[in-house]
C-alpha cells in the first residue's frame, strides 16, 4: 500500500473530532417571515438558529430564498470550482482537502480559536481570500 500524499494530511486543529450523535434530523429554519416587522428582534427566531448552530454546527434554510437567487449561487460556484487547480489553490489554507471547499467568514478578519482543545487560549486570525473570478461570486 502506498503512503498518503502529505498534502492531504490536515493539521490537528482542522481534523474532525469524532463523536456519535443521534437526533431527529437536521434543523430546519423557516425564513419566510424574514420581511415581517420585528423578525430580527424575535428572540424565538434567534434562539432556534443559535441552538441549531451550537448543537449541529449548521442548519437548513427553508422558504424565503427565491429560486433565481439559488440558481445564481449555483452558477457562480460552478464557475469558481471549474477553474484550473492553480487558481483555486489561491483560496485555500494550503492543505488539500478531500473535497473542494472555499472558506468565507462573515467578519473580515475573523478571530478563531487556534484549536478545539478546551484549555487552549491561543487565537488565530482568518482573512477572507475572495476570488476575483467569477465577478458575481
Task: Give a nutshell description of this structure.
It contains three helices and four strands; from the N terminus they run E-H-E-H-H-E-E. It has helices at 43-55, 67-81, 85-88; strands at 28-30, 60-62, 110-113, 123-126.
Describe it for me?
This protein is of the alpha+beta class and 137 residues long. 23% of the residues lie in helices and 10% in strands. It has helices spanning 43-55, 67-81, 85-88, and strands spanning 28-30, 60-62, 110-113, 123-126. The chain has a two-stranded parallel ribbon. Helix 1 (43-55) links the parallel strand 1 and strand 2 (60-62). The longest helix is centred in the middle third of the chain and has 15 residues, at 67-81. The N and C termini lie far apart (41 Å). The relative contact order is 0.15. The mean pLDDT is 78. GO terms for molecular function: metal ion binding; oxidoreductase activity. This is Non-haem dioxygenase N-terminal domain-containing protein. InterPro entries: DIOX_N (IPR026992), IPNS-like_sf (IPR027443).
Fraction of residues in H or I helices: 10-25%
- Overall 3D geometry? globular
Rg over CA atoms? 18 Å
Q: Identify the quaternary structure here.
A: single chain
Q: Which structural class matches the secondary elements?
A: alpha+beta
State the strand order across the main sheet: 1-2
Helical stretch tally? 3
* End-to-end separation: 41 Å
**Largest sheet composition:** 2 strands, parallel
Organism: Escallonia herrerae
InterPro entries: DIOX_N, IPNS-like_sf
Domain Non-haem dioxygenase N-terminal: 26-94
Protein name: Non-haem dioxygenase N-terminal domain-containing protein
Amino acid at each position: 500500500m502506498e503512503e498518503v500524499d502529505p498534502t492531504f494530511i490536515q493539521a490537528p486543529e482542522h481534523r474532525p473530532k469524532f463523536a456519535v450523535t443521534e437526533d431527529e434530523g437536521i434543523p430546519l429554519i423557516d425564513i419566510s417571515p424574514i420581511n415581517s416587522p420585528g423578525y430580527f428582534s424575535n428572540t424565538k427566531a434567534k434562539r432556534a438558529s443559535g441552538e441549531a448552530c451550537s448543537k449541529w454546527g449548521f442548519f437548513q434554510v427553508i422558504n424565503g430564498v427565491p429560486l433565481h437567487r439559488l440558481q445564481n449561487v449555483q452558477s457562480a460556484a460552478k464557475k469558481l470550482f471549474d477553474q484550473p487547480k492553480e487558481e483555486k489553490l489561491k483560496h485555500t489554507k494550503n492543505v488539500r482537502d478531500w473535497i473542494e471547499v472555499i472558506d468565507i467568514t462573515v467578519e473580515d478578519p475573523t478571530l478563531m480559536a487556534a484549536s478545539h482543545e478546551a484549555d487552549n487560549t491561543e487565537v488565530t486570525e482568518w482573512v477572507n481570500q475572495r476570488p476575483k473570478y467569477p465577478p458575481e461570486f
